[in-house]
Every structure is written in structure tokens, then in C-alpha cells.
Amino acid sequence: MNIEYFEYMDKLIELKSSVTMGKTYKSVFSKIGIPKEQMEDFFKWSEKAKMIGREKNNAERAKKLNMSLDDFMLFYKEFIILKMVHDKIIPHKLYKYMPINDYTLAMFENKKMWFSDLDKFNDEFEGRSPFPESFTEEDSMNYKKYLETKYNNSVQIDADKSIMSRFKDVLQKSASKSVDSAKASCFTTTPTNTKMWAHYGDNSKGVCVEFDVLEDPLFFYPILPIDYVKELPKTSYLKGSFDFPIKEIFFSKQRCWEEEDEIRVLKYKEGNLIEFNPRTITSVIFGTKSLEEDQAELSKIIKKNFETMQLKICSHNNSYDYDIDDLDFNNTY
């Protein structure tokens, strides 16, 4: 999948129907500048992309495209990540500040990243339930509509009835189970954040690792920028779409964390180590206080395990900012 395809799709949408009517798809594609060697692949991609807009259910999407659900989901996840980059919801370069310790060395040695359980994060409000303590009249009506739709009959429901209480317990337990099984890894948008160097980069003795999302989009699925809010988000027990409040639980934090500019990747796989494509790491930036022996040890691992990767180092300039320069790879041994 090519992120340029989203640009092509934008140009197709802008074309007036009078321009495309009666024309072959190749002549239309040529008009908007699609290279001949990409036309066939883009046509197949666009048919899949249009199906995402037409159908809400992934199983139905896969069926209409004559694809297995597993194959379609791989396409869907990659499509979503690339679209987020294209729409500038996330940048295509992300950064992760890390100390130089055994876990970091193991990440580069094994090409697997540690995703932490939420209760291990430094924010004690991580994963807090956004559900209210009691039902509102709106909750009761939403649940009533849900039951009527599911069972195709008229249901008499009251917020005080035991069925509502049982439903509340089910949702609360579901939220707790979801939080307990979730794992996350946190990224940010710049390698020159002084607080991030201090808090996560071992007081500038560590590294800031640069990732290119486009090199391994499936690794970064699902991903969202953190929404920094004044108060703990609340949600109805049943919204109109009956969606589980993923964003409120996993992608919301207090405004006091706003300077971290966090972008978070969430996983539900067993185990905390998640494999990544080595091409997704494009550079490693050593902090201003990083030790030469640490630079040498990490550089050796990188040289052994990564074909192409830039090594850089931070230095102070005449302002409250950093210069980032190439590190002489040969002089780190």
C-alpha cells in the first residue's frame, strides 16, 4: 500500500463527473497523473477503499470483496494508519525517549518492543472507568432501544430495575477486563523536548529513537493522539452506536501531561514484547550526557542487527534548544 494512493483518491474526488463520464479508468488515472505502472494496483486498492466507506461491518466488507476476513483486516489496519498520516492526525515520524539499559539493548537486539501494562504507567489515573456511578433517563432509554432492536419487541425498562443494575455490572467488569488485558507503548512528536529527555531519557544520558510509521503500519495499529482534558471523561452506558468507549478509557489524560504530546499505540496480544520491522527505526539520537561506553555498546548492536540506521547526538546551542548532528559511527567503538 502506498500513501500516494490517498493523494490520487483526493484528485479523483475533485474531478467533475463530466470529465470522467464514459472514460476508461486508465484514461481518468492518466489525467490525474497516476503512473502507468501503478494504475492496476491503485484500481484494486480503490475498490477496497470504497468498500470501507460503504459497509460498516468488516465481515460484510470482506465478503463483498471476495477476501478472507483475516486478509481484509490486514488491509483495513494498514489503510487506517496510512489515512491517519495522510489526514495529519498523526505524523509519519514518531519519537520514543528511552534510557540505555538492558531493556533498550534487548529491543535493538531482538527487534521487539516492550508494551507496558497500564497499571505500570506513571499516571495513577490510567485506565480509569469513564462510566457514571448511576444511570440517567437517557441510559435507560438507550438500553430499551437496544433490547427492542435485538429482540424485536417492546420492552418495559426502568433505571431502578435489577436488569439495569446487572447491565451496569457487566459493563464495569468488561471495562476492567479490557484495561487489565491492554498494553501500550508511548511516543511523541519531537526529539527536542527537554522534559522528555529528563523524565524518560535518563536525564539526557539515554536516547531518543525515531520511527517511521509508514515502514511498519501494522505495528502502529491501533494508534491515537492523547486527548488532554480538564476532567475525567464520562460516557453514557450505551451511546447511539453502542460502541465501547475506547478513547475515553485509553486515550485521555489530564492536561498536566499535555507537554508530553503523547501518541499512544495499544495492543491486546498475549505477552508484552511486540515484534517490529527493523526498517521502522530510522535513527537513534543520543542525549547530551550519554556516555561513550553506552554509545559504543548500543552502536555495536545496531551495526549487527540493522542494515540502515542513522546515529545522531544532541548538543546544546546558544538557546533553550538542541542541535542534532551525525554521530561518527566508526568512532563509537
Key descriptive features of the protein:
12 helices, four-stranded antiparallel beta sheet, 13 strands, alpha+beta, 333 residues, five-stranded mixed beta sheet
The value of Rg in angstroms is: 24 Å
Low-confidence stretches: none
Overall average pLDDT: 86
Helix run count: 12
Q: How many angstroms separate the termini?
A: 39 Å
How many β strands by DSSP? 13
Helix content: 40-55%
Q: Class by helix and strand content?
A: alpha+beta
Order of helices and strands: HHHHHHEHEEHHEHEEEHEEEEHEE
Main beta-sheet strand count, sense and barrel state: 5 strands, mixed
* Strands in their spatial order, largest beta sheet: 1-5-11-12-13
As a percent range, the share of strand residues is 15-25%
Label the overall shape.
globular
List the helices and strands and how they pair.
Blueprint: H1 4-14, H2 17-20, H3 25-31, H4 36-54, H5 58-64, H6 69-86, E1 93-98, H7 102-110, E2 112-114, E3 116-117, H8 137-151, H9 162-181, E4 183-187, H10 194-199, E5 207-212, E6 223-225, E7 227-229, H11 246-250, E8 252-254, E9 263-267, E10 273-275, E11 281-286, H12 292-305, E12 310-316, E13 322-326
Parallel strand pairs: 7-8, 11-12
Antiparallel strand pairs: 1-5, 2-10, 3-4, 4-9, 5-11, 6-9, 12-13
Helix pairs in contact: 3-4, 5-6, 7-12
